[in-house]
Specification:
By secondary structure, this protein is α/β, with parallel strands linked by helices. It has one domain: Spore Coat Polysaccharide Biosynthesis Protein SpsA, Chain A (Alpha-Beta Complex). 34% of the residues lie in helices and 22% in strands. It contains twelve helices and 13 strands. The strands form three sheets. A nine-stranded mixed β-sheet has the order 5-4-1-6-11-8-12-10-9. Strands 2-3 form a two-stranded antiparallel ribbon. It has a two-stranded antiparallel ribbon with strand order 7-13. Bound molecules: 1-O-phosphono-alpha-D-glucopyranose. The site of 1-O-phosphono-alpha-D-glucopyranose has 14 residues, from strand 11 and helix 10.
């Protein structure tokens, strides 16, 4: 794959998950056995990404520690014969040639501004943007990013965005696509709008946390004024590019590639339950336990 660089914004405050996120990043919340951001990294490296540039902020250093080699832990596990745990903490990133880079967003000015913080490091290269709080597909088995890059190259577009259908009432939480004509599996974008009101949404296709951009995104972001929530929105920069005549492509996630979002408790709880129930070793026992709980007489 020609694009091997991904920007992973992880700078958000996680206010919708307080108090869990008071002193730990939402991207480090566990989903089953792993923190959310580990699934994102596994998905990206499976799709051929080799350089991961995290946009962090205050309070996010545990993400950096998580992907470091921890020689003390490794030798302790080795000395005490814990081979199984050893496999879980030794990432094969070095052998795969995967490198980690970190830079900080110094002020909370929105997702678009976080991506713009990567500009001096990315320069004139196309890149992937993958939001660090969204897992694509159960156990992150998706190759959506590889498919998006293929489409980026095939069509010569300046941007490719992944979309998923959401219920009409939920459009208020997402960037929403206006497709040119009818939207098949792959479609051309006429416009995108960030978190429209229910009656004003051009479709129910929601931006699904994965993007591919040509370097044209950076000047567009630099010119984008604050929008929804008084923040610089990535969606608004995409809109700007489309209005300037740049080509934008949308790709729908497949049914097996549902997006698991950990941005609020309702979606985080569901995500955790689904991943725990799919756990190879403990899932079936847990299923019985949950079924037992559900069958109990309601208390109170
Ligand atoms: C962000 C984007 C939005 C997108 C969503 C999920 O919103 O601004 O366009 O649909 O991620 O990928 P947030 O969840 O940060 O409010």
């Amino acid at each position: 794959m020609s694009i091997d660089l991904a920007i992973i914004p992880v700078a958000g405050l996680g206010t919708r998950l307080l108090p869990a996120t008071k002193s730990q990043p939402k991207e480090m919340l566990p989903v089953g056995r792993k923190p959310v951001v580990q699934y994102v990294v596994e998905e990206l490296t499976k799709s051929g990404i080799r350089r991961l540039l995290f946009i962090t902020s205050r309070g996010k250093t545990s993400i950096e520690y998580h992907f470091d080699s921890d020689n003390e832990l490794v030798s302790y596990l080795r000395q005490t014969g814990r081979e199984e745990q050893l496999r879980d903490v030794v990432f094969s990133h070095a052998e795969q040639g995967v490198e980690f880079f970190y830079t900080r967003q110094r002020e909370q000015r929105g997702l678009g501004h976080a991506v713009l913080c990567a500009r001096p490091l990315v320069g004139d290269e196309p890149c992937v943007v993958a939001l660090g709080d969204s897992i694509i597909g159960i156990h992150a088995q998706s190759n959506i990013v590889a498919r998006m890059v293929e489409e980026f190259e095939r069509t010569g577009a300046d941007l490719v965005v992944a979309f998923e259908e959401v219920p009409a009432k939920d459009v208020v939480h997402y960037g929403i696509a206006e497709p040119k004509g009818s939207a098949g599996r792959v479609f051309e974008l006429a416009d995108v709008v960030e978190k429209p009101a229910v009656g004003e949404a051009p479709s129910n296709l929601a931006v699904a946390a994965r993007y591919v951009f040509s370097p044209a995104i950076f000047p567009a972001l630099a010119e984008t004024p604050p929008g929804k929530g008084n923040e610089i929105q990535l969606t608004d920069a995409i809109r700007r590019l489309l209005r300037q005549g740049h080509k934008g492509i949308g790709i729908r996630l497949e049914a097996s590639e549902r997006r698991f979002d950990v941005g609020n408790f309702a979606t985080y709880f569901r995500t955790f339950i689904e991943f725990a129930l799919a756990d190879e070793e403990l899932g079936s026992e847990l299923r019985e336990f949950v079924a037992g709980l559900l069958a109990e007489e309601p208390r109170g």
